[in-house]
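[Automated response] Your request has been received and processed.

Submitted sequence:
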Amino acid sequence: MKLKNIALLAGLILPAGASFAQYAEDALRFSQAEPGLTTRFRGLGGAQTALGGDLSSLGGNPAGLGLFTKSEASLTADFSNSNLNAQYLGTSSSFQKDRGGIDQAGLVIYNPTRRSGASDLTSGWLSFNFGIGYNKTNNFNVTTDYSGQNNRSSFADFLADEAERFNPSALGDAAYNNFLVAFDDTYGYYPITSPGNNQQNTTYRTGFQSEVNFAVGANYENKLYVGAAFAFTSLNYKMQREYTESGQTLLPQNIEDAGLVVEDASRPYLNSNYRLGYISDQLTNGSGVNGKLGLIYRPVSSLRLGVSFVTPTWYTVSDSFMESLDARYTTSSGSSNIPGEEEYYDQDYTIRTPYKLNGGVAVTIAPFGLISGDVEYVDYQSMHFSASGSPDATKDTNRDIRDLYKSAVNLRIGAEARLPASFLLRAGYSTNGNPYNNADFSSDTFSAGIGFRGKTTYFDLALTSNSRKYSTSPYRISEDYLFYPETGSGDQAAVKNNWTNIFATIGFRF
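Generated structure:
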């Protein structure tokens, strides 16, 4: 079975100068799922660990189910707008995308313990509540587009590096057969393209992760709340990439000046205009399971302390990948087109995502409202990858995971104010820590919301704004690549991605 040697083509967040594997980046992508939240906790910045009493507890801290005193059902819809801005080689570009869907649905059944009329109704176990809920935990829908003129390197530099390092390589062979690279007995493979070319890279990503939780929460004397949940998870991810580059190929004199010898004097298309195109498609589907344990303690009526532990998710994944490279040359005598042949790579593998440990505090300020805060610890180095029948891919990917990633701390805080006529006003903030060892990354979310509480019905509306900044590259060249020493590991695009989301929840108590 073939494995895809497209590690350096990811066009994703990459630490400068580091080795990289697509599977390692996918492992991180699928490990950054967030707890499913109702609109109320969206408005509170996601700070739910110590608060409870909300259907968000199904996908967060299941101990929060113990605070329910009635049965409840809710449905949450969302609308998202993604606005991406990129700076690459002095050129700015932007792209916008809208999408909507169902974000959450849940049901909790309140189940008080049976007691005689003379019993103390405030001692012992007071209720065992059961719930089931669907949560969308990750949204992959984003388009990245950037372009510019590169005066230092060409995509053919990467292809020559690929042909040299992974020999045999389907992509390296395609580059040689398309006359984008040549071979020298002393040096090896080298590009025939010149710097000063125009590049454009566009990547379309769609899909999401979700989970269905089955949970139970118990209430002991209105002081201690404990809970557990078991989840079936799923993921579907699709990526389509289009890279184009146009410029001038080398003059024969350039090759002689570099001390290189073309092994085949009849190789064409030196001193001509060229245009190359690279496309790739990835389709990934998977399913898995995880568990959640939680506790909330209320030492006094106005204070709640919460902790929760989310086990790793064990995913079974099927991955299908296709790539193709074509080239077109224009000379004084006309033009020639060399179509690309599609290469397909399929791989089944398993991923173990990191465990997550959460701690939270919630303070009620009667009768004005409350404040809630969370701290989450995630150890991304604990991820593990295993490809069936591919020991090299398993070893290399797990090495990349150890080299590329580290643990991170995520923070969330929110406040809720009670208004007249059963209205509630909310605001929140959250920030995710940097999971990379040697790359800049930041992700901050601000939120605001309003809610209405009736006797049996409630409605919530929230607006969230997320800003994420990172660096990305259309290709990566290894550190020991020598043809253009000043190239380094590849030029970086500075990307800022802003998401604006609107969430709406309708709920019923019975």
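Summary generated for your ticket: The longest strand covers residues 273-300. DSSP finds six helices and 21 strands in the chain.
If you did not submit this request, please reply to this message.
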